[in-house]
Amino acid sequence: MPAAHRASSPSAGLGLFLLLLGLLAPALTWAQAQHVLSGLVRAADGTALPGATVAVPSLGLGTATDAAGRYRLAIPAGPQSVTVSFLGYQPQTFRVNLSRAQQRDLLLMPTTNELTEVVVQGQQTLQQKLETPQMGVEHLSVREAKLLPALFGEVDILKTLQLKPGVQSGGEGSSGLFVRGGSADQNLVLLDNMLVYNPNHLFGLFSVFNSDAVQSVDLYKSGFPAQFGGRLSSVIDVKMREGSREKLTVSGGLGLIASRLSLEGPIDKGRGSFLVSGRRTYFDVFTRALNRANADNENWQPIPDYYFHDLNAKANYTLGERDQVFATGYLGRDVFGLNSFGNLSANFSWGNTLGSLRWQHTFSPRLTANTQVGVTSYRYSLGSAFDIASFGLTSTIRDYTARLDLDYAPDSTHQVRFGGSVTQHTFGVGRLQVETNDNSLNINNDITYPALEAGLYASDSWKVTSRLQAELGLRLSGFHSQGRAYGGLEPRVAARYALTRTVSLKANYALMYQYAHLVSNTGASLPTDIWYPTRLSVRPQRSQQVSTGVSWLLFGGKFLLTDEVYYKWAKNQVDFRDGAQIFANPNLDQEFLFGRGWSYGNELYLEKQQGRTTGWIGYTLAWAWRRFPPQRGTTGINDGRDYVPSYDRRHNLNVVLLHQLSTRLRLTASFVYTSGAPATLPAGRFPVQNVPGGDLLAVPVYPDRNTYRLIPYHRLDLGLVWKLRPVRLGTERDLTFSIYNAYDRRNAYFVYFEVTRNPDTDLIDGFRARQVSLFPIIPSVTYNFTF
Description:
- Keywords: Cell outer membrane, Membrane, Receptor, Signal, TonB box, Transmembrane, Transmembrane beta strand, Transport.
- It is a multi-pass membrane protein.
- By secondary structure, this protein is mostly beta strands.
- 6% of the residues lie in helices and 56% in strands.
- It folds into two domains: 31-117, Sandwich (Immunoglobulin-like), CATH 2.60.40.1120; 137-676 and 711-786, Beta Barrel (Maltoporin, Chain A), CATH 2.40.170.
- The strands form ten sheets. The chain has a 22-stranded antiparallel barrel. Strands 9-16-17-12-13 form a five-stranded mixed beta sheet.
């Protein structure tokens, strides 16, 4: 096996990592006559404020708090004036006179100006976005997502990410993400650092993330930090809220299809907090009532029962000045059932479960460690029963993970991160059970593959000069399965050069490996798609991406314009051969085909964060390609010729506007336009008479895969948020009105052909294409409350 895929020995991997640390040694040891000021920035209720700015304006030094609200800033000894700010909160300025490292925690009070409170703000200000060396990064706060119009009034953070450039949806109403030409399984989705295998409810219509429990989302399309690995296209890093440390709060919402309820409050007031949040849909309540009402109607076709629910929980507690512990839990299930009035019943359920425990220890103001252990699992179960027999099919994935992350700030020019992780996988590829009532037939076939995945990484955010910043990282990843070892080095480089105070040039390069593969026999992402490990003939996927661009602050810093171009190429892409036997197949790797893919594009993005009117405009011009040559006795895919995948979109335009009408009314709108989805449609038909004297059959003739495109997709959504008067001090209420697909555009979900006949002879005289649309105009209203 090539060296890029087979690790020679554990000692070789350790040697490479020690070499990596040696390259970063100057950053770890060099410190000038400076002292580190560190601490936490929180809101008045104790909630952490990620993305808050901590700066010494007179020296031009500054930093932003991380996802936990922590900051570290190395400043020269002597008296200095430090300013802390976060949009929607009153800035705070204080004096320090450092002769040694010092820790200082800060509480920011909400501003009394209601207009400022409702300004939409992500985790980074426009100035911070200009100054970071990373590109292809989108930061989203849940407050931002909650303002936008939503399908059925159900806020979905993944759908909001679809409004960013370079991100394609999987189709009408879908929460699936296809980032820069990558497939859906190439997104690393994390909830508080724990892997989520299937981030969708309702066959992809909604995501599993309850907006009431989420604080922020970071999407990395390129410039991936070295601590992330295992996927090729993107990282979606979701952080849960910690809950209020000051008072007990109940919040929730009542919508058309689902309700939400959250409870949060202090644990030993001021030292810790908890948050519990749940939601559930109502579909099954109505379908069961209709089925019962028509139980005696012989012509009634039973409607399947369907519902989903999820539960989020998080707790944190401060053990002392140097130690804090965090616990996170998630449970989500989709349940689909059909109990007919005859002798047939069927049920289908799937969902994620995860839990983790994290210990944060501060060795010194310069060095902090986070140690985390956790378990995550995904399971689907499909079953049916007849008069005499029952059938069941189950697939599972279970991971046990341990990781250690260390942050070290030697001085104001270096921010070093290093650590590692190890995960024990168990892939239950398929468990088939077939049995009869009299036990005359009993089949139980269980296929399980264990695997071990590990990674070591180190990175340095280095301020080389006042104009040049670099993010240097290296990851060593490895995977062990079926007695074979695979691995490789994954370099990550990002750089930013400031041409002026308002214009920056940026460039990124990243190499990624992926050792788990999602394989599907359909064009849609379904819960029954199978995760399969690298083993035998299935080698790791690998991708490389280069990107470059310019960022420009306009009109006194009120607007940020970015222009990014990228090129990405990947090999060992996985797909099924035609006629593959998928379920409960112990030799599933023999059903795979392997190919390569590449994509490239240009992304333009204009954003405004301040004032009565905020929002963004994003345009993407992109191409995505695949090639699967002849192999394993097949002609490959598309006879080995290049083709575009189903999620390729040439043009993608997104416009998002949020306008403050008054202190109580906010108007929101989003417009989406994309090129039509590629489709494989028959170019013609030829007649075949399989029986002498019988009817002629029209056999379709297909051209190359995805030769045609459906009509362009476009849609306008409108929303109005009406803040009601509080019933008492400390309470909040609002009504959120949404109109999905405001001008009732009938977008194509799929196309089929119907036979047309001559009215005189009743003979077939042609075929006519018919379009199926999923959603017409859909108004909705949601009542949200906090008390």
